[in-house]
Amino acid sequence: MHAFEQLRLQLAEKDPEFASFFSAFAFDEVIRESRLDDKTRFLAILAALMGCQGADAFRAAAPEALRHGVTPVELKELVYQGTAYLGLGRTLPFLHAANQALEGEGVPLPLPPQGTTAPETRIEEGNQVQVDIFGEGMRGFQNSGPEESRRVNRWLAGNCFGDYYTRGGLDHGQRELITFCFLAAQGGCEPQLVSHAAGNLRIGNDKRFLIDVVCQCLPYIGYPRSLNALRCVYEAAKERE
Protein backbone atom coordinates (compact mmCIF):
# COMPACT_ATOMS: atom_id res chain seq x y z
CA MET A 1 0.00 0.00 0.00
CA HIS A 2 1.67 3.23 -1.13
CA ALA A 3 1.66 6.53 0.70
CA PHE A 4 -1.80 8.06 1.12
CA GLU A 5 -3.47 4.86 -0.09
CA GLN A 6 -6.02 5.06 2.72
CA LEU A 7 -6.90 8.59 1.65
CA ARG A 8 -7.27 7.46 -1.96
CA LEU A 9 -9.59 4.65 -0.89
CA GLN A 10 -11.70 7.02 1.19
CA LEU A 11 -12.08 9.40 -1.73
CA ALA A 12 -12.80 6.60 -4.20
CA GLU A 13 -15.90 5.47 -2.32
CA LYS A 14 -18.00 8.53 -3.18
CA ASP A 15 -15.78 10.48 -5.61
CA PRO A 16 -14.15 7.81 -7.78
CA GLU A 17 -13.42 10.04 -10.76
CA PHE A 18 -11.73 12.69 -8.64
CA ALA A 19 -9.83 10.03 -6.68
CA SER A 20 -8.54 8.56 -9.93
CA PHE A 21 -7.08 11.69 -11.52
CA PHE A 22 -5.89 13.27 -8.25
CA SER A 23 -4.14 10.06 -7.23
CA ALA A 24 -2.52 9.69 -10.64
CA PHE A 25 -1.14 13.20 -10.32
CA ALA A 26 -0.23 13.56 -6.62
CA PHE A 27 0.71 9.99 -5.77
CA ASP A 28 2.40 9.01 -9.04
CA GLU A 29 3.39 11.77 -11.49
CA VAL A 30 4.56 14.28 -8.87
CA ILE A 31 6.53 11.69 -6.91
CA ARG A 32 8.16 10.21 -10.03
CA GLU A 33 9.59 13.63 -10.90
CA SER A 34 11.14 14.11 -7.44
CA ARG A 35 14.62 13.42 -6.12
CA LEU A 36 13.55 13.65 -2.47
CA ASP A 37 13.74 10.60 -0.24
CA ASP A 38 10.56 9.44 1.45
CA LYS A 39 11.35 10.98 4.85
CA THR A 40 12.13 14.40 3.42
CA ARG A 41 9.04 14.32 1.21
CA PHE A 42 6.80 13.51 4.17
CA LEU A 43 8.37 16.16 6.40
CA ALA A 44 7.69 18.74 3.69
CA ILE A 45 4.13 17.58 3.03
CA LEU A 46 3.20 17.34 6.71
CA ALA A 47 4.54 20.86 7.34
CA ALA A 48 2.66 22.16 4.31
CA LEU A 49 -0.55 20.52 5.48
CA MET A 50 -0.15 22.28 8.82
CA GLY A 51 0.47 25.57 7.04
CA CYS A 52 -2.68 25.28 4.92
CA GLN A 53 -4.71 23.82 7.80
CA GLY A 54 -5.23 20.49 6.05
CA ALA A 55 -6.07 18.56 9.21
CA ASP A 56 -7.93 15.68 7.53
CA ALA A 57 -5.10 15.09 5.06
CA PHE A 58 -2.55 15.36 7.89
CA ARG A 59 -4.38 12.66 9.84
CA ALA A 60 -4.21 10.43 6.76
CA ALA A 61 -0.56 11.24 6.09
CA ALA A 62 0.93 11.00 9.58
CA PRO A 63 0.68 7.19 9.95
CA GLU A 64 2.10 6.74 6.45
CA ALA A 65 4.94 9.12 7.30
CA LEU A 66 5.84 6.96 10.31
CA ARG A 67 5.95 3.94 8.02
CA HIS A 68 8.16 5.74 5.49
CA GLY A 69 11.05 6.77 7.70
CA VAL A 70 9.78 9.68 9.81
CA THR A 71 10.51 8.86 13.44
CA PRO A 72 8.09 9.57 16.29
CA VAL A 73 10.42 12.28 17.61
CA GLU A 74 10.68 13.90 14.17
CA LEU A 75 6.89 13.95 13.82
CA LYS A 76 6.42 15.57 17.22
CA GLU A 77 9.22 18.09 16.65
CA LEU A 78 7.65 19.12 13.35
CA VAL A 79 4.32 19.82 15.06
CA TYR A 80 5.93 21.60 18.00
CA GLN A 81 7.93 23.91 15.72
CA GLY A 82 4.82 24.75 13.74
CA THR A 83 3.54 26.62 16.77
CA ALA A 84 6.25 29.27 16.36
CA TYR A 85 5.09 30.00 12.80
CA LEU A 86 1.36 29.23 12.89
CA GLY A 87 0.36 29.80 16.53
CA LEU A 88 -1.21 27.33 18.94
CA GLY A 89 -4.70 28.13 17.66
CA ARG A 90 -3.78 26.48 14.38
CA THR A 91 -1.39 23.76 15.55
CA LEU A 92 -3.33 22.19 18.43
CA PRO A 93 -5.48 19.97 16.14
CA PHE A 94 -2.29 18.67 14.52
CA LEU A 95 -0.74 17.85 17.89
CA HIS A 96 -3.81 15.75 18.67
CA ALA A 97 -3.57 14.11 15.22
CA ALA A 98 0.13 13.33 15.71
CA ASN A 99 -0.56 11.76 19.10
CA GLN A 100 -3.36 9.70 17.58
CA ALA A 101 -1.05 8.47 14.82
CA LEU A 102 1.69 7.57 17.30
CA GLU A 103 -0.69 5.72 19.59
CA GLY A 104 -2.08 3.90 16.55
CA GLU A 105 1.43 2.68 15.78
CA GLY A 106 1.92 1.54 19.37
CA VAL A 107 4.34 4.31 20.33
CA PRO A 108 4.24 5.08 24.09
CA LEU A 109 3.74 8.72 25.04
CA PRO A 110 5.17 11.05 26.17
CA LEU A 111 8.35 10.76 24.09
CA PRO A 112 11.81 11.34 25.60
CA PRO A 113 12.62 15.05 26.23
CA GLN A 114 14.49 16.84 23.44
CA GLY A 115 15.23 20.22 25.03
CA THR A 116 18.87 21.32 25.23
CA THR A 117 18.70 24.84 26.68
CA ALA A 118 18.08 26.34 30.11
CA PRO A 119 16.04 29.48 30.87
CA GLU A 120 19.23 31.47 31.39
CA THR A 121 20.85 30.28 28.11
CA ARG A 122 17.96 30.06 25.64
CA ILE A 123 18.32 33.60 24.25
CA GLU A 124 22.06 33.34 23.70
CA GLU A 125 21.82 29.85 22.21
CA GLY A 126 18.85 30.81 20.08
CA ASN A 127 20.74 33.80 18.72
CA GLN A 128 23.65 31.52 17.87
CA VAL A 129 21.27 29.39 15.80
CA GLN A 130 20.15 32.56 14.00
CA VAL A 131 23.80 33.32 13.24
CA ASP A 132 24.43 29.74 12.10
CA ILE A 133 21.52 29.85 9.66
CA PHE A 134 21.38 33.46 8.49
CA GLY A 135 24.92 34.73 9.01
CA GLU A 136 26.97 36.90 11.30
CA GLY A 137 24.70 39.87 10.66
CA MET A 138 22.21 38.28 13.08
CA ARG A 139 24.64 38.47 16.00
CA GLY A 140 22.91 40.32 18.86
CA PHE A 141 19.58 40.43 17.00
CA GLN A 142 17.72 40.15 20.29
CA ASN A 143 18.96 43.60 21.27
CA SER A 144 18.04 45.32 18.00
CA GLY A 145 15.01 47.22 16.75
CA PRO A 146 12.82 49.99 18.18
CA GLU A 147 12.68 49.92 21.96
CA GLU A 148 8.90 49.58 22.10
CA SER A 149 8.90 46.37 20.03
CA ARG A 150 12.34 45.00 20.92
CA ARG A 151 10.71 42.30 23.01
CA VAL A 152 9.59 40.60 19.77
CA ASN A 153 13.19 40.30 18.57
CA ARG A 154 14.13 38.95 21.99
CA TRP A 155 11.30 36.41 21.74
CA LEU A 156 12.41 35.41 18.26
CA ALA A 157 15.86 34.62 19.59
CA GLY A 158 14.78 33.02 22.86
CA ASN A 159 11.51 31.35 21.93
CA CYS A 160 11.41 30.70 18.19
CA PHE A 161 15.05 29.71 17.88
CA GLY A 162 16.06 29.08 21.50
CA ASP A 163 13.07 26.96 22.52
CA TYR A 164 12.51 25.17 19.20
CA TYR A 165 15.53 25.11 16.88
CA THR A 166 17.92 24.00 19.64
CA ARG A 167 15.90 20.89 20.38
CA GLY A 168 16.98 17.40 19.34
CA GLY A 169 15.22 15.28 16.75
CA LEU A 170 15.70 17.51 13.70
CA ASP A 171 18.85 19.22 12.43
CA HIS A 172 19.05 22.82 11.20
CA GLY A 173 18.52 21.78 7.60
CA GLN A 174 15.34 19.87 8.41
CA ARG A 175 14.05 22.66 10.64
CA GLU A 176 14.59 25.28 7.95
CA LEU A 177 12.92 22.95 5.42
CA ILE A 178 9.74 22.63 7.49
CA THR A 179 9.73 26.35 8.30
CA PHE A 180 9.88 27.08 4.57
CA CYS A 181 6.88 24.79 4.09
CA PHE A 182 4.89 26.30 6.96
CA LEU A 183 5.33 29.77 5.44
CA ALA A 184 4.76 28.74 1.83
CA ALA A 185 1.54 26.91 2.65
CA GLN A 186 -0.09 29.56 4.82
CA GLY A 187 0.56 32.34 2.32
CA GLY A 188 0.84 36.06 3.02
CA CYS A 189 4.31 35.64 4.53
CA GLU A 190 6.38 36.23 1.41
CA PRO A 191 9.00 38.54 3.03
CA GLN A 192 9.65 35.88 5.70
CA LEU A 193 9.53 33.16 3.04
CA VAL A 194 12.31 34.87 1.07
CA SER A 195 14.37 35.12 4.25
CA HIS A 196 13.90 31.46 5.09
CA ALA A 197 14.54 30.43 1.49
CA ALA A 198 17.84 32.29 1.87
CA GLY A 199 18.47 30.51 5.18
CA ASN A 200 17.86 27.17 3.50
CA LEU A 201 20.24 28.04 0.69
CA ARG A 202 22.92 29.17 3.13
CA ILE A 203 22.94 25.90 5.08
CA GLY A 204 22.89 23.58 2.07
CA ASN A 205 19.26 23.15 0.97
CA ASP A 206 20.00 24.40 -2.53
CA LYS A 207 17.70 25.94 -5.12
CA ARG A 208 17.00 22.66 -6.91
CA PHE A 209 16.11 21.05 -3.57
CA LEU A 210 13.69 23.85 -2.61
CA ILE A 211 12.02 23.76 -6.02
CA ASP A 212 11.56 20.00 -5.60
CA VAL A 213 10.05 20.61 -2.15
CA VAL A 214 7.56 23.13 -3.57
CA CYS A 215 6.60 20.70 -6.33
CA GLN A 216 5.95 17.91 -3.82
CA CYS A 217 3.73 20.22 -1.76
CA LEU A 218 1.83 21.63 -4.74
CA PRO A 219 -1.01 19.04 -4.78
CA TYR A 220 -1.79 19.92 -1.15
CA ILE A 221 -1.46 23.72 -1.17
CA GLY A 222 -2.50 24.55 -4.75
CA TYR A 223 -0.88 26.45 -7.60
CA PRO A 224 -1.10 30.09 -6.38
CA ARG A 225 0.84 29.52 -3.17
CA SER A 226 3.24 27.17 -4.93
CA LEU A 227 3.98 29.77 -7.59
CA ASN A 228 4.50 32.39 -4.88
CA ALA A 229 6.92 30.05 -3.13
CA LEU A 230 8.86 29.43 -6.34
CA ARG A 231 9.16 33.18 -6.88
CA CYS A 232 10.54 33.56 -3.36
CA VAL A 233 13.10 30.81 -3.99
CA TYR A 234 14.28 32.50 -7.16
CA GLU A 235 14.43 35.87 -5.39
CA ALA A 236 16.52 34.45 -2.55
CA ALA A 237 18.81 32.66 -4.99
CA LYS A 238 19.30 35.82 -7.05
CA GLU A 239 20.26 37.79 -3.92
CA ARG A 240 23.02 35.25 -3.27
CA GLU A 241 24.52 35.58 -6.74
Characterise the protein shown here.
- This protein is globular.
- Helix content is 73%, strand content 0%.
- The chain has helices spanning 5-14, 16-32, 38-51, 55-67, 72-86, 88-104, 122-134, 150-165, 172-186, 190-202, 207-221, 223-240.
- The N and C termini lie far apart (44 Å).
- The mean pLDDT is 96.
- The protein contains twelve helices and no strands.
- With 241 residues, it is mainly α.
**What proportion of the residues form beta strands (DSSP E)?**
under 5%
Shape: globular
Number of helices: 12
Proportion of residues in helical segments:
over 70%
How many E-type strands?
A: 0
Structural class comes to mainly alpha
Low-confidence spans: pLDDT under 50, at least 5 residues?
none
Q: What composes the largest sheet?
A: none
What string gives the helices and strands in order? HHHHHHHHHHHH
Q: Mean of the pLDDT scores?
A: 96
Measured between the Cα atoms of the first and last residue, the distance is 44 Å
Q: Which radius of gyration do the C-alpha atoms yield?
A: 18 Å
Topology summary:
Layout: H1 5-14, H2 16-32, H3 38-51, H4 55-67, H5 72-86, H6 88-104, H7 122-134, H8 150-165, H9 172-186, H10 190-202, H11 207-221, H12 223-240
Helix pairs in contact: 1-2, 3-4, 3-5, 3-9, 3-11, 4-6, 5-6, 5-8, 5-9, 7-8, 9-10, 9-11, 10-12, 11-12
